[in-house]
Amino acid sequence: MIFDVVIVGGGPAGFFAAIHCAQCALALSGTQPRVLIFEAGSQVLGKVRISGGGRCNVTHAAFDLQTFSGRYPRGSRELLGPLSRFGPRETFDWFERRGVKLKVESDRRVFPVSNKSQSIVDALVSEADRLGVQVETNCKVTDVAHEREGDQPLFRVDVAKRGHFSSRRLMLATGASQRALDWAQMLGDHRVVPLVPSLFSFTVCPERHAWLLELAGIAIPEAEVSFAEPSAQPASRATLNGPALKETGPLLISHSGITGPAVLALSAFGARVFCERKYRFTAQLNFIPSFGPFTEVMESWRKSSGRRLGILTRNPFMLPRRLWAALVTKVARIHSTQNYANLSAAEMKRLGDALTRCELHIVGRSPFKEEFVMAGGVDLRDVNMASCESKRVPGLYFGGEVLDVDGVTGGFNLQNAWTTGYCAGVAMGAAIAHPREAPLAK
Description:
Blueprint: E1 2-8, H1 12-29, E2 35-38, H2 46-50, E3 59-60, H3 65-69, H4 76-85, H5 88-97, E4 102-104, E5 109-112, H6 117-130, E6 134-136, E7 141-149, E8 152-159, E9 163-172, H7 178-188, E10 192-198, E11 200-204, H8 210-213, E12 219-227, E13 246-253, E14 257-259, H9 261-269, H10 271-276, E15 281-286, H11 294-304, H12 321-331, H13 345-356, E16 358-367, E17 373-378, E18 383-384, E19 389-390, E20 396-398, H14 412-433
Parallel strand pairs: 1-2, 1-9, 2-6, 9-20
Antiparallel strand pairs: 3-5, 4-5, 7-8, 8-9, 10-17, 11-14, 11-16, 12-13, 12-15, 13-14, 15-16, 18-19
Protein name: Flavoprotein
Pfam families: HI0933_like, HI0933_like_1st
Organism: Cyanidioschyzon merolae (strain NIES-3377 / 10D)
């Protein structure tokens, strides 16, 4: 049997592509297409199952697409068009129409009301089954090849212990897989951007920052984390996110360093810079980014709070008490019995630096819980992003993280899967229904 479409990878991009391919082909031609998904694992949709701590962070409720696309360190510009066709609003509506009620949390992340990723998995599996998509698990694809049957191009897919399968169209939706990137190069000499880790926490030097590690578990609602480029090196390498490589958001002190949304976003935008430095660099923390000039706040506080108020008694920045004490005594080196009225100019300077320019020596990275994202993949210059079809090999499609697209934490990476899966699926479905017509372009 020759399949209309074979999809390698039973993750969110692969499932969404299969569903929309079958739906589109059936609507346009009245004939059910032969669509087959190969999944190497024993369960499909593994990344959906663990996303959001098992709750599944479906997408992010930032419905302005310019803002939304700006949260992709790589692929921001190229993904804007596809997002206009199937973006976060369409994702929200798609699942709700299939009985999965969604909710928007205070940080704009979107989850099923059930708080169970199984709700999302069941909706996808049910829809694929309804549309006749064939799903094979425990099927490890070992090789792919491009061949012909007469004047018709075919793809051959070799599966361990199962033999080979033929298809008129092939989609790679494997996630960030080096093997899939090797196939892309072999099939059409596609350009490939090397894979490097993204979305990771920062490990600090324990000898230099024992004071910080003693504060493990303390959360700061808003802090600014920036990459402090050594002055001897070109500043241009640190200008990947506007005027400087920096992010603002919640921060958490861990047993090995710092983590939380601000750190994860910085790790994503600086993934290649940090990799080049072998994860040894200086990060700078501003614990009070929204309080205005430090000196003005402190002078106002000193005038209004009583001249003999001890510096450790209260602080004007509403920082956690233990964090404030460590910054005052261990970073700014101010005696614990000092009061606000008697702070010297030198002490004020050291305290201001501790609060707004606290330098941390980063010596490594660590993965963030279930979030595992790689930067890199098939170069977007070789892909028509309107259809996610290769510009080099007709009939070859890509979706999800196999492309050089990755987002920050908060639902953006799953949205990339839904968006590229939709675009590839609709394009494949149209090509099945009208094989002699040119691929969709937009």
